[in-house]
Amino acid sequence: MKLAGILLLVAGWAIVLSAIVLLPAPVGRAVFVLAGIAVELLGLALMVSSHLVLNADKG
Amino acid sequence: MIIQPLTALSDTSAVLCTLLVFMVPMACAGLALVNTGLGRSRSSAHAMLSSLCVLSIASIVYVVLGFSVQGMSGSPAHALVMGGKVWNWIAAEPVFLRGLRFDFSPASLTLLLQIFSVGLAALIPLSSGADRWRLGGACVSTVLLAGWTYPLFAHWVWGGGWLAQLGVNYGLGSGFVDGGGSGTIQVVGGLTALSITWILRPRSGKYSRGGPAAAIPAHNIVLVLLGCLFAWLGWLGLNCAGAILFSNVDPSRVILIAVNTTLSAATSGLMATAVTRIRFRRPDASLVANGWMAGLVASSAGAAFMKPAAGILVGAVAGILVPFAIDVLETRLGVDDAGGAVSVHSIAGLWGLCSVAALSDLGTQSGSHGQWLAQLVGVATLLGFVLPLTYGLNWLVNTVYRQRVDVEGEWRGMDLHELGSGAYPEFVVHSDDFIQS
Hints:
Chain A is mostly helical. Chain A has helices at residues 2-22, 26-58. Chain B is an all-alpha fold. Chain B has 16 helices and two strands. In chain B, a hairpin with a 2-residue loop joins β1 and β2 (85-91).
């Protein structure tokens, strides 16, 4: 789960960079930048929950 | 408005800038005091010694390697061409400052400011690793931060890198703007702090299965509040010097920057006082101190480009946000961050970056929604590149050199375990918070 979180963080950043390079239209660019950040937040949530599980296992 | 790189300073500006840079170590001193005061008494000498070691290592590593990675705007760099645009990724300066003239030039002043700034960034994770982070682990982590993570992102923002060029290349406002380092210094340090709390895991006795998180109070709140006052002075220098050197702001604007910095910290501290007064029926001194620091952190990015009313708003939001963020991270998300560094530096720093688009003159110019995009790309880079990088590097270090002290060391306290003597030898240190029923 931790690795999936990290991969989502990086994937979200890749979406943001791709949006800047590939999409000249302001609206499309903004939508994809926001989508990339949403993916990053999902990755962050996975990272947080994976560490919560680790802490709970440790007691 | 495109921000042009600074190429030269008049004699008066250079002297003013030098004096401002000389104030920045006060921010380091303040943060060290805050970190130490918010930790346990049995680890306080260790916390202060760690601060000194971390500052020393950060400055040496930055001089040897970091500055060659960061470089200056307009100096040699490695670049890629993507979509017909030049993406400047990393500087190509010689290591060990070869070729740099030590005079009043912008390059030499930038070097001096960055030596202090990288130290400030390196101090931030010490707070989240309090009471369990071995001195050796903190030092190795600092080498990675000062030699690679910090200078690389700083190059992108302040060294003429691709984030700074978003305005020129893609018409996104003025490009990513971070005058005093809300993102470059504070969020980078704060995300490293988050990585460290995850890697070290919580302090023994902090969380029990099914029970609430145990409160481990600050051992010396006077140190914490004194640290806040020192930090104020240091931040005045940091925000003013950063704006002149990195955003090419006219030196006459230092008054506005100082006013905005002070207003932001003051409002944030007062809002944290009000929030804790309402929630707990009396002000919580440690959360108020965190609120004050959050106001300073949030002010850094846009203090040079805001009206004082906007500075007040920046501080107000930071002061409301941070006490709740500290509570949620500690009690709901299992982040044992003794000094609240993740909330104060990451969350308030991210808010500071967004405030440039929402409240500054750059962001409110007509048709400048591009500034919002530029700031969001910077935020996405911090979350999607810097966090995985700093987490991965510290995880790798932890696999070959265990960063957390053993249970025995944590029980005795870092002072006795690693230094052989305590900070307050005449006081009795209670250890019953480790006894679990």
